[in-house]
Each structure stands twice: as structure tokens, then as C-alpha cells.
Amino acid sequence: MRLFIAIPLGEAVETELKRLTARLRPAAPNLRWSSPESWHITLQFLGNANEEQYACLLPRLSALNAPPIAIDFEGLGVFDRAGVFFLGVAPTPVLTALEKKVVAATQPCGFEPEDRPYHPHITLARLKSGSRGRELRTLLERAGGGARFERFTASEFRLYESHLSAAGSQYEVKCRFLLTG
């Protein structure tokens, strides 16, 4: 099974992102747009896991003690090399602390931490293979700097399984973990 750990979005943010992507989608035919059901803020991508690793994860993640987190946004951006258009999430001390706790909890189960710095974001679209990255920059200019997204408070994080298909990834919630600490 292919797993990752993430925070689901608040309803108001999801509504605003639906409006934004509906407006921008016609201007970017060479992008694969993420469906609203797939929007999330990744804490850690785990990758392929066996049943033993899965069984190890559940109690370790359940034992995490963390408070609800105010999620703020930094604006729209692009990862040129990865060909991704995204909404940036502010890496607040509380969010970063949760990410570090999650990574520490998963290591004894055989999962390795990312070697890049944590850069929380919501993936909105990706370049189709063979497309040029210039389209991402044009889209960013078209979106304008005025997009504002309402802060929300995350009260949980989730363990997801990603099912790959020709139509794109489908995400299944395997377990929910409340932020109450």
C-alpha cells in the first residue's frame, strides 16, 4: 500500500480554491488539475508500506500529542522543476512541530524523513508530460497576487492510502488522528 500523512482542508478554503481553479482551468489546458477530493497539506509522504509497517504506524500516530493548528496561507506559487502549481501554506512553528513529531513517529516503522526542507502546500495542478514550464508562470501571473484564503483551524490529521490509476490518484482515508493536545 502507498501511504501518506496529511491535514485535510477547511470547508471555506476548499470553496475558494474551487472558485479559483474553475476560473484558471480554461487558461491552462496543458495542466492536470487536482480534484478537490485530493487537496490536502502533506505532513509526510511514506510511499510503499507493508502490513507490518502499517500496523506499527497506527499506535505511534495515535500517541502523538499536538494542539489544533491555525493554518495560514502564503499565496500561489510554482515548483518549476516538479512542474507544480500550488497554494503555499505558512510553515508556522506549530505546524512545523507537528511535521517533526510525525516524522519521528514513523521512523521506527522503517520510514525515512524527506531530505528536503518541509515546504507545506496544496497541489492544485501539474504539468502534463511533455509540456513546457512557461505555462505555469503564465498561470501564476493570470491568477494575480490578490488571491486571499481564509485561515482555518486543523483539528485532525489523517493517514491516507493512495490508489494509482490512469485517471489519477484516488485517496482513501485509513485513519483519523485528533489534534487535542
What tags apply to this protein structure?
4-stranded antiparallel beta sheet; 4 helices
Largest sheet: 4 strands, antiparallel
Number of helical segments? 4
Low-pLDDT segments: none
Let me know the average pLDDT: 91
Strand order of the largest sheet: 3-1-9-10
Strand content: 25-35%
Percent range for helical residues?
Answer: 25-40%
CATH superfamily heading: Cyclic phosphodiesterase
At CATH level 2, the architecture is: Alpha-Beta Complex
CATH class: Alpha Beta
How many separate domains make up the residues? 1
Give the CATH topology: Cyclic Phosphodiesterase, Chain: A
By DSSP, the count of extended strands is: 10
Element order, helices and strands?
Answer: EHEEHEEEHEHEEE
Tell me the Rg in angstroms.
Answer: 17 Å
In whole angstroms, the N-to-C terminal distance is: 30 Å
What's the oligomerization state? single chain
Layout of strands and helices, then pairs:
Blueprint: E1 2-8, H1 11-24, E2 31-33, E3 40-48, H2 51-62, E4 69-71, E5 73-79, E6 84-89, H3 93-106, E7 121-127, H4 134-143, E8 152-154, E9 156-163, E10 170-178
Antiparallel strand pairs: 1-3, 1-9, 2-7, 4-8, 5-6, 6-7, 9-10
Give the gist of this structure.
This protein has 181 residues and is of the alpha+beta class.
